[in-house]
Amino acid sequence: MHQLGGMALFYSIGDSPLGAKESIEDTGRVLSRMCQGITARVLSRQSVRALAKVSSIPVINALDDYAHPMQMLADLQTIIEHKGMMEGFEMAYFGDVENNVTYDLMRLAAVMGFNLRVAGVGTIENKVWTEVNELSSKSGSEVKRCETAQEAVFGVDVIYTDSWMSYGIPKDEEAKRKELFMPFQVNSDLMKLAKPDCIFMNCLPAARGMEQTAEVIDGPQSVVFDQAENRLHAQKAMLVYLLAPQRFRNIVSVDQLPVK
What we know:
The chain is of the alpha/beta class. Helix content is 42%, strand content 13%.
């Protein structure tokens, strides 16, 4: 917002009355009279939906337990920059399959028409499969779960992983989780099974020696810092689209973006 010439107000959930002394709906109604947009990073999908239901201004989902759409915009920009468009495109995701990033990567693949193979620990909610299968039937993409990392990775264009220690994981569970997830660690041997020009992505923060080895994240195929930078650019574009739509229409279209 600052780079675009606007102003941002930080409202912390941790030390605010949001959802306790004041209902989420009342907060949405008040903010609608004071601001031009709301960006909400919350613990529950119900919270962001409650805000959106009553707000008369755009409500942007910055993360909840079910989705991470702002990350998807940055990821898509990064893929386009490094690999071009989506035709015939293959991605593998490794790690915690029962989280917001996994769910939204599945949705992204289904919407954009590329193929995604998911391998890791956890249970993907049936509601997510229903949504993804419906979207895939229109786009022609294939989204599937694989039993092993080796099965998922063969011949892919992108390898993607995320933290094994999601928000709220107790310290005393970390050692057990690491043991469960280690078969899905992205290392140099796994990278060799993908295409030679495969890129490596992680939405950060990353723990070297856990979801990926240091030689992978710091290696020549890693684009994680381009990916992190694109959170800035993608979100600025989204803000312009929502808050200044005429200005957005004057910006260069996506098919004119340079491909590295």
